[in-house]
Known about the structure:
Blueprint lengths: L2 H16 L1 H4 L8 E3 L2 E3 L4 H6 L8 E5 L5 E5 L14 E5 L4 H10 L4 E5 L5 H14 L3 E6 L3 E6 L8 H25 L2 H31 L5 H29 L8 H27 L2 H21 L4 H18 L7
Parallel strand pairs: 5-6
Antiparallel strand pairs: 1-2, 3-4, 6-8, 7-8
Helix pairs in contact: 1-4, 1-8, 4-5, 6-7, 6-8, 6-9, 7-8, 8-11, 9-10, 9-11, 10-11
Amino acid sequence: MTWVQLTLLRSLLVVLWSVKDVVTDIEVRKVQEIKGSLYVSLPREWAKRFGIVKGSLVLLEASPDGILVVRPWRDEQVIDSSTELRKVSVIADQYLSRKLVSYYLLGFDVIEVRIRPEVGEVARKCIDEMLKLLPGLEIVEESKDAIVLQCFTDTGGSEVSKLIQRMINVVAKMLYSVLEYFETGRKECLEDILRRDYLVDRAYFLVVRGIRKALRSRANFDPLKLLDYRLLAMIIEQIGDLCKEFAKFALTRDYNELSSEAITRFRSVVDVLVSALRKCIQIYERCDVAELTKLISELSRVESELEKLSCLCCELANLLHRVEKLVGDALDLVPYRT
């Protein structure tokens, strides 16, 4: 497992930790009626922990699915968060890449990198590579012993679904580029896949950063929904990685042309997979059980078709089979409500 994968796994654990209070410490309390109004008492330990006493203000957030969230009121919550920059200072060493990715994903706005003379050249090359990978990160100050980076992309929770849809569109083009390679034999198709994987990675980092900031802002975002979006983005990123690894493999092999009939049959499979991916967010938002059931049925037929197609091109059938499993995982995130 690479350090990037370890960092992303760690970020998922942080998200899970962030929402733990939402899904634990559940208890049943009886609703009381006093003079026509309904009341529920607050847990004593919770009130003590957050300094809630008679006359304190609390925030009530009601979600469409019937969840009522009670939060302690803090005066600073009315301050425009865009005027507050989260800053951190790090020392340039062999772990600089990991530090930059980690603090970027944690939502820090300004990262100061302190550089010792003996590692100056290596540190600057590392920073240049990270600037290409992490969207919105730019150098704002530079001296012989320090470089200050600032992120100018402020993605919030409301933008996450759009970013995921962008990731889906890029991954769809990668899958169709695989087909185009088998149809034409053009190595440029494989090189295009490698280039697009870079775009998927950038969007993925931006999604994680946006989710982290949304969780920290205490705005009216459902933390469990943000967690599902985080998992969906990870699944899409994994599909992009599968396409990338296939492209690297194909670049080292001789081209084997497929018949037009085989291409047509494989294309019909890709059409189903891409369609299911593009509908994921829509059916998640609507909890569309009918559409979900239809897509699951189509994926079942795709799996059967790929078994028949494996004799025509084992490598391509194997790739699409693994993609089909990941698409199924994405659909599993949709709440099954009737």
